[in-house]
Amino acid sequence: MMWPEANFNFIYNSEAQTKVVELLYAVKMLSMIILLPDEHMDPSVVENNLTFEKFIAWTKAASLQYIELEVLLLRFKLQGDYDMESVLQHLGMVDAFQQGQADFSAMSTETDLCLSKVLHKSVVEVNEEGTEAAAAIDIDEVFDCTSCSPTFCANHTFLFFIRHNRTNTLLFCGRFSCP
C-alpha cells in the first residue's frame, strides 16, 4: 500500500536508530504511530528499551517535524482472541468470578450471578483506505523502496501504536514482522 506524498509528522530518533511517523485518522482524534528501526537494528532492542515515557517524548508535537513524505506500508491484518479471566483476577477482580461473592445487583435483578469467562477480541487492519481498529499477518505486497525519496518505507519489522491524541492514551499496540 502506498500513501501519496503528503505531509506527515516524522522524526528520526538517533538514540534508538528508529524512524517515527504519525498517520492521522480522518477525525484527527486518533493516530497510528509507526516505529521503524533501521534495517540493521534488531527490533527487539527497540522494543525492550521502549518505555511509555520515551514513547511520549518521541511522539510529542514539539519533537516531530511536519514534512512532505511518501509512506509505503504493507497491507496487514492482526487479530487475536484473549481469555481475560487470569488478567482481571491478577488486577484484583477476583470476586466477580466467584459465585456468592460477585455483586452484579446494579446490572441485573438476578441474584447469585458471577462471571464464568471474559473474552477480548481485537482486530487491527491496514489497507488502501487507511487503518481500522476494533483491537497473524497477511502480506499482500512487497515494495522496492530504493527509488523513492523522501520515503518512509515499512518493508521490515516495525512497531505500531494507535493513540487517542487528546489524552495520549494507547488503545492498541503491536509488532508487524515480515516472514
Explain what the structure shows.
The protein has two domains: 2-74 and 139-176, Alpha-1-antitrypsin, domain 1, CATH 2.30.39.10; 83-130, no CATH class. The chain has three helices and ten strands. Strand 9 (158-164) and strand 10 form a beta hairpin. A seven-stranded mixed β-sheet has the order 8-4-1-2-3-9-10. The protein has a three-stranded antiparallel β-sheet with strand order 5-6-7. Residues 134-149 have low confidence and may be disordered. The chain is mainly beta.
**Distance from first to last alpha carbon:** 18 Å
Percentage of residues in helical conformation: 10-25%
Total DSSP helices = 3
From the helix content, strand content and strand pairing, which structural class follows?
A: mainly beta
Q: What's the CATH class label of the largest domain? A: Mainly Beta
List its traits.
179 residues, mainly beta, Alpha-1-antitrypsin, domain 1, 2 domains, seven-stranded mixed β-sheet, three-stranded antiparallel β-sheet, 3 helices, 12% helix, 42% strand, elongated, Serpin domain-containing protein, Serpin_dom, Serpin_sf_1
Mind sketching the topology for me?
Elements: E1 2-13, E2 18-24, E3 30-37, H1 43-49, H2 52-59, E4 65-73, E5 76-83, H3 85-90, E6 119-127, E7 130-133, E8 151-154, E9 158-164, E10 169-176
Parallel strand pairs: 4-8
Antiparallel strand pairs: 1-2, 1-4, 2-3, 3-9, 5-6, 6-7, 9-10
Q: Could you write a compact summary of the structure shown?
A:
InterPro entries: Serpin_CS, Serpin_dom, Serpin_fam, Serpin_sf, Serpin_sf_1, Serpin_sf_2. The chain is mainly beta. It has helices at 43-49, 52-59, 85-90; strands at 2-13, 18-24, 30-37, 65-73, 76-83, 119-127, 130-133, 151-154, 158-164, 169-176.
